[in-house]
């Protein structure tokens, strides 16, 4: 039996267990251990296609070795996430982290890759329906080597083709990760696009957490924490709230699957107007087209939803620089009024309980997490991570 385990021969190991215990007892043992098997067995019996070592993960926070297998994804670390089946990955989102000095359309220094799940991953007492990966936007990354597992399968062939192209081009980490995940899952990534909304990302607060709202063709996403994805099919309607914060009002989103609406605060007035127009057209298109993805959802009514409609220059919402709390506090201390809005050229291309400590706590010195620690000293709070 030890030899079967060492050789990672699942069939031989199963035969030995059945021989020693009998078919009935072996079946009961398997059924009683199914939860543990889903976390540990994939590392032994799954056919590994690619191994991506030391991937920085924002939610749930930690550093993991990411294994792409025939069945799905395995995040291997101090607190393994277990096997995430490919069919449970609903969307792959790729959005740029907001930077105050980045020009519209320019590459970002860091990207967030979001795996939107139909089934939550449980870590401690929290359920996560979004797995958020950090991916460097400028540093070239070596393409991972193709593992021998799954030879001959269609998924293996797709991944092999992508890795061959990546090895020749030497692209940045965000390109390597996104293209490998696209090939493994068999779906295209979703990115912000000017044809969907004039705004690439909108700074907002969810409770006490500062983040960014990303309007996408498949729904609205708030990152980095709490990581929330609101699919178009689950959005009932949206409205402007009565909040009067230092930077603007509130955005209230009512969902079909949840009686409690999501409230995002401290949005600039022009951004609220643009988001309401985007959400209104997105929901209307989904309801009238059976869930299809709209080509144009940046208008305020049916006329603006028309592909031939062009937004006039004075109607386009102003683009805003992201202003962090530290910048605001520094300006207040110096007696200056912080600049919260800046007009930029329109985009021409894509541009509450206290949680338990995460097991991968050695990543506190990781440079990928440094920006998050500087901007907020508040512990994570429990929020809903539902997408259904």
From TrEMBL:
<dbReference type="Pfam" id="PF08512">
    <property type="entry name" value="Rttp106-like_middle"/>
</dbReference>
<feature type="domain" description="Histone chaperone RTT106/FACT complex subunit SPT16-like middle">
    <location>
        <begin position="199"/>
        <end position="286"/>
    </location>
</feature>
<dbReference type="InterPro" id="IPR013719">
    <property type="entry name" value="RTT106/SPT16-like_middle_dom"/>
</dbReference>
<protein>
    <recommendedName>
        <fullName>Histone chaperone RTT106/FACT complex subunit SPT16-like middle domain-containing protein</fullName>
    </recommendedName>
</protein>
<dbReference type="GO" id="GO:0031491">
    <property type="term" value="F:nucleosome binding"/>
</dbReference>
<feature type="compositionally biased region" description="Acidic residues">
    <location>
        <begin position="300"/>
        <end position="312"/>
    </location>
</feature>
<dbReference type="InterPro" id="IPR011993">
    <property type="entry name" value="PH-like_dom_sf"/>
</dbReference>
<feature type="compositionally biased region" description="Acidic residues">
    <location>
        <begin position="355"/>
        <end position="388"/>
    </location>
</feature>
<feature type="region of interest" description="Disordered">
    <location>
        <begin position="288"/>
        <end position="388"/>
    </location>
</feature>
<dbReference type="GO" id="GO:0042393">
    <property type="term" value="F:histone binding"/>
</dbReference>
<dbReference type="GO" id="GO:0035101">
    <property type="term" value="C:FACT complex"/>
</dbReference>
<dbReference type="InterPro" id="IPR050454">
    <property type="entry name" value="RTT106/SSRP1_HistChap/FACT"/>
</dbReference>
